[in-house]
């Protein structure tokens, strides 16, 4: 069972999962870059969002550790 789940909060869909936080960050950043500005992509661990990525209007991905 995976420990980290990558979800697109805008469409409430799980995109991928992995056992490694670094892989989860890489995947979430890529998903955010390929999405629409303002969409939120989160990494969930043990039922809580621990990391958040948002594509900004200028094309950069803002990220924030939540836990």
Short description:
This protein has about 70 residues and is α+β, with helices and mostly antiparallel strands.
Q: What's the pLDDT, averaged over the residues?
A: 93
Name the helicity range.
Answer: 10-25%
Residue windows where pLDDT falls under 50 for at least 5 positions: none
Order of helices and strands: EEHEEE
How many helix segments?
1
| Helix/strand structural class | alpha+beta
Major beta sheet summary = 5 strands, antiparallel
- In total, how many beta strands? 5
What is the beta-strand fraction? Answer: 35-45%
Q: Give the strand line-up of the largest sheet.
A: 2-1-3-4-5
- CA distance, first residue to last residue: 21 Å
Indicate the overall shape: globular
CA gyration radius, whole angstroms: 11 Å
Question: What can you see in these coordinates?
Answer:
The two termini are 21 Å apart. The protein has a five-stranded antiparallel beta sheet with strand order 2-1-3-4-5, covered by helices on one side. The chain is globular, with a radius of gyration of 11 Å. With 67 residues, it is an alpha+beta fold. Strand 4 (48-55) and strand 5 (61-65) form a beta hairpin. It has one helix and five strands.
Describe the secondary-structure layout.
Layout: E1 4-8, E2 13-18, H1 21-34, E3 40-45, E4 48-55, E5 61-65
Antiparallel strand pairs: 1-2, 1-3, 3-4, 4-5
Keywords:
globular, about 70 residues, 5 strands, about 20% helix
